[in-house]
User: Which sequence fits this backbone?
């Protein structure tokens, strides 16, 4: 691309940006002196016909300046007044709180997991109002979100329930709306992170408009890790319909992606790095889904992503209508997620689609098998590294033997370069002929490494996202295999690379990589690579989980031992030219058969 074309594209982009800024709508005026401006007020008919994607955002706006009758209409204004009661349900896995205000889950603490600062993991982001509500438009044109309305419920006198063994508990929450009723049923089971949710609408045919209501989870999931940036990299929202997954990712501050679909929908979900919230349709009545994300800047250069999810349910104006759902609130444990048998494994970070089978059907079963006999996950990773090294031994052995032959040919190659220093083309011809004579494949050292790349990336996906490694202690300073093992902080952040502390295992991995590279590099022109690659990889791996760095450190140690063994086997073996028959086939013959012959003097 020449300079004029490049300048043209830059000018076009500049004009487009100026035009978009000029034509973009200005922020709405704020409330002044307790009164709304005319631009903010919407008449009742607008609420009925508003696009679905506007509903979540508007449902979050509290109409403080409007009377309850104006904002909720005659059907729901009375339900806005009441006294809140909370019941606590404790199982072996969690402690949940259900509120009669909104009929929502106000709290959902996981008993077997802790936050980075050792508090119980709380998955509900907005514990003041809770989550899991209904959203619909009334026939009066009012946008109704049930999270602010009071439900009636028969609660136990102690306001608490303890589930053990095979115990179950059901609570019916009833919202009265004029002549109609909304009945939300929550069914809890011990030893399960999922709860059954039932919705029954009785006599609502003259109250709900637009032939639809939505079951929504508005506030996403609470962050519980030390680094919000690291957690945001894994945060997404998902929709599963027709065997295909739709995802949205609000990865930059100010970004607000939206997905609003219609048609038979299996489930919607949102996740953080290690936990998830999922709404599943159990009776195949959901006919659409809604995903909305937004990203906000956080202190210390962090970012936080928020996701709202919802299932659309058709309303047929019958006297009584029901729908059944499952709400999952819990860890991204592969066995639990896979156990639903509903395609939920799509929300697991197991690598690219062509990498996933390696992670799912080889590495996860092996990892689980080792842990059955060994409790310490650090030792599991070490044994895992040894097994993978044994499996890859034929590939790496071939690579090392090829590199060893290349090292032995270096003196001859230097002679050729000196002899034909004024004829680069002839240098290439003679070196290729040398490869052919001695049966050396110049790609032999690289091809096995390329074949290992899918395996190594699958391991990266496994160790970077496995909840089993979260807060798993190993030895000495390595207290959590899911985060970098920082041994000391730097006084400043290194420019360009953004490194502000040093990981012990990443440093050890870099040292072993340096030793390995030095053992295999004899070409004087590649001396810079001896230190350049280890330094670069150390900086890259410095911010990765210590479990992953432990794997690569052990893998490199084994590779060094393997290289020493190969060297001892071949150090005293003299180079021999291959027979003419062997030369006639293979990759080297293909590379050299069409080389131009050197003209006779």
Assistant:
């Amino acid at each position: 691309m020449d300079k004029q074309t490049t300048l043209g594209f830059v000018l076009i982009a500049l004009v487009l940006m100026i035009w978009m800024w000029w034509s973009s709508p200005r922020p709405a005026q704020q409330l002044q002196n307790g009164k709304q401006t005319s631009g903010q007020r919407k008449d009742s008919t607008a609420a009925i016909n508003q696009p679905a994607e506007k509903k979540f955002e508007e449902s979050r706006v509290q109409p403080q300046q409007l009377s309850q009758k104006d904002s909720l209409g005659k059907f729901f204004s009375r339900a806005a007044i009441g006294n809140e009661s909370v019941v606590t349900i404790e199982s072996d896995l969690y402690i949940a709180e259900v509120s009669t205000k909104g009929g929502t889950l106000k709290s959902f603490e996981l008993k077997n997991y802790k936050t980075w600062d050792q508090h119980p993991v709380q998955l509900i982001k907005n514990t003041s109002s809770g989550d899991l509500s209904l959203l619909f438009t009334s026939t009066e044109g009012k946008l109704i979100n049930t999270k602010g309305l009071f439900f009636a419920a028969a609660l136990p006198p102690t306001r608490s329930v303890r589930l053990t063994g095979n115990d179950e508990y059901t609570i019916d929450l009833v919202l009265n709306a004029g002549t109609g009723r909304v009945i939300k049923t929550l069914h809890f089971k011990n030893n399960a992170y999922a709860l059954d949710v039932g919705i029954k609408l009785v006599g609502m045919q003259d109250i709900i408009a637009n032939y639809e209501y939505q079951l929504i989870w508005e506030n996403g999931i609470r962050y519980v890790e030390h680094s919000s940036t690291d957690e945001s990299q894994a945060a997404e929202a998902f929709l599963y319909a027709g065997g295909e997954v739709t995802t949205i990712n609000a990865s930059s501050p100010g970004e607000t992606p939206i997905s609003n679909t219609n048609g038979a929908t299996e489930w919607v979900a949102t996740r953080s790095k290690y936990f998830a919230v999922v709404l599943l349709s159990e009776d195949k009545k959901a006919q659409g889904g809604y995903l909305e994300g937004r990203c906000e800047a956080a202190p210390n250069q962090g970012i936080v992503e928020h996701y709202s999810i919802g299932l659309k349910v058709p309303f047929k104006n019958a006297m009584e209508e029901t729908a059944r759902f499952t709400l999952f609130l819990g860890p991204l444990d592969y066995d639990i997620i896979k156990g639903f048998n509903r395609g939920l494994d799509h929300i697991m970070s197991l690598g690219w689609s062509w990498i996933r089978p390696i992670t799912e059907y080889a590495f996860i079963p092996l990892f689980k098998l080792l842990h059955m006999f060994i409790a310490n996950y650090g030792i599991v990773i070490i044994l895992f590294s040894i097994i993978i090294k044994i499996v890859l031994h034929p590939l790496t052995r071939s690579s090392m033997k090829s590199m060893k032959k290349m090292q032995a040919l270096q003196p001859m190659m230097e002679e050729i370069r000196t002899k034909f220093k004024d004829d680069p083309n002839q240098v290439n011809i003679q070196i290729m002929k040398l490869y052919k004579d001695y049966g050396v494949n110049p790609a032999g050292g690289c091809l096995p490494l390329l074949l290992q790349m899918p395996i190594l990336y699958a391991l990266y996906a496994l160790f970077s996202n496995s909840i089993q490694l979260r807060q798993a202690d190993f030895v000495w300073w390595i207290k959590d295999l899911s985060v970098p093992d920082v041994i000391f902080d730097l006084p400043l952040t290194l420019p360009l690379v953004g490194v502000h502390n040093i990981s012990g295992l990443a440093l050890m991995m870099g040292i072993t990589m340096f030793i390995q590279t030095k053992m295999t590099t004899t070409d004087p022109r590649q001396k810079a690579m001896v230190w350049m690659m280890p330094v670069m990889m150390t900086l890259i791996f410095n911010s990765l989980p210590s479990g992953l760095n432990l794997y690569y450190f052990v893998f490199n140690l084994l590779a060094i031992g393997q290289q020493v063994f190969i060297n001892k086997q071949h150090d005293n073996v003299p180079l021999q030219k291959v027979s003419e028959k062997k030369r006639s086939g293979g990759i080297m013959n293909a590379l050299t058969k069409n080389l131009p012959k050197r003209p006779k003097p």
Observations:
- The radius of gyration is 32 Å.
- The longest strand covers residues 302-314.
- Residues 491 and 500 are 8 Å apart (CA to CA).
- The chain has a mean pLDDT of 79.
